[in-house]
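Render Beta-propeller fold lactonase family protein in 3D.
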Amino acid sequence: MPHAPHTLFTRTCLAALLLAGASLAHADDLLLVGNKDGASVSALSLKDGKQVLRLPVSTGPHEVIVAADGRLAVVGNYGAQGVANNRLSVIDWLSRKVVRTIDLGQDSRPHGIRFLPDNHRVVVTTEDSERLLVVDLAQGKVLQRIAIGGGQPHMVVLSPTADRAYVTHVKDGSLSVVDLAQQRKIATVPTGHSTEGIAINQAGTEVWVSNREDNDVAIVDTRTLKVTDRIKTGQFPIRIVMTPDGQYALVTCAKSAELAVIDVAQKREVRRVNLAFEGAQYRKTLLGAAALPIGAVVSADGKHAYVAISGGDEVAVIDTATWTVQARWPAGPEPDALALVPEA
């Protein structure tokens, strides 16, 4: 069952923390890892992969997102098979503590999360209630509930101006377009079969989504809301992340245990990285005993990509100059979501 809400900080204290304007002193980043089977978030040093700390959260942490100012991280606690969760864990990185657990009430199975520009509100998809929520972290409450339709709404990205949200629907094979100012869904774009992963280019002109059953990426023009291109990948593409310079889209392919590297401008795959370790013993996953790479993130300097190997309880470290696996770092049980946060 989910853990009881934390009461370490009062609403007033958290609000003051969220609204403080002082910038953080940026040191070496840490890698946050959501461990689904461990109900925890680990922080690994990017110097050597050693665990700096591990924080208990709630059942089934599927996504982790960090505010642009590095002060807060939010964890979406999805639950386990047959047992839905409905809570967000809020981590204050200055104190390195979970300072609030937000009960979403009727809106269970939270998944995709993005911070709004003010760094104290987030948008969250909830699969069971088929909504996109706007949640105030300081107040610890849902401000808006926007109906976006069924078909398992899963991952979300925001436009560069944060006036629109784009949500993938796995079972429906579509993309929802949500006007956040009007608080309503304005379009549905058919994208493929089992649409899950999502990313947006730097200009905000293209939304890239991965279709698990089609083994491809579909590119949606945000002006016409039409699919303009399709790019083949490995098997079961499940996540997409853009490199900081916008040059590459990295696609984790869960079934073939690969990372597909796509040139964004040329719209073609240029490399394929094998993520499975020969002779490794993998845990049982939704795809059987397999490596099952899922979450991915790229360092701020673009020199390394990190991929959660869910079936191996590890993180693969990839050198983007050579597109080779450089190291494998131990993680907690069933790692999935990854995010970077300043160490200081």
